Amino acid sequence: MTEVWSYLARDPLLWLSMTVAAYAFGLVIFNRLGRQPLFNPSLIAMGVLALILLATGTTFETYFEGAQFVHFLLGPATVCLALPLYDNLSRVRRAALPILAALIAGSLTAIATALGIASAFGVSPTILAALAPKSATAAVALGIAEQSGGSPTLAALMVFMTGLCGAAFATPVLNLLRIRDWRARGFATGVAAHGFGTARAFNVNPTAGAFAGLGMGLNAMMTAILAPLILRMFL
What we know:
Elements: H1 2-9, H2 12-32, H3 41-56, H4 60-79, H5 82-87, H6 89-94, H7 96-120, H8 125-131, H9 138-147, H10 152-176, H11 182-204, H12 206-234
Helix pairs in contact: 2-3, 2-4, 7-11, 7-12, 8-10, 9-10, 10-11, 11-12
């Protein structure tokens, strides 16, 4: 069996298949538990794959040779979020000023609160640089963190945790605040929790999902501008 596994592990198709199977398993668990955001299928898939890699002694580099096709599809999938947004273009135009105000407020709050709390605990500049772009989508956050002297690996973890928490708590918090406008709910979720929040918003309401995609895209650009500037103030 060891020899068989050594042979199979060298085939990139194995790890692509493992990735798809792990996500399918996570999706089944997610649906059977009532689509609770804490049981996100991506989180379950990551846990399953991590256990497989540890049990088989497989390096991440070997795994990524096969799974990089899924990574490549992240870009096209993000671009596809523009399609439901296009269907709601008239609503976006009517709410242009509130959207701009919410974007600036949300982006500033996400960056400043993270850096302020972390600075109060005396964390290192490397960690601060990784924390600053936590509410931006992963591709943007990694670039910001690396250029600011932070750890891209830590930044990826911060982005993941931010998205997971946002997807889990956005709906209860917005319900508690009695916010009923799906545009506002979706946009706030997308700004705060990027892709995870956007996926959750689509599960709740199509309009919320469209505006969450808008919030995610605009916040990525805003964070790229604001994060380095605010980070310099704390450093």
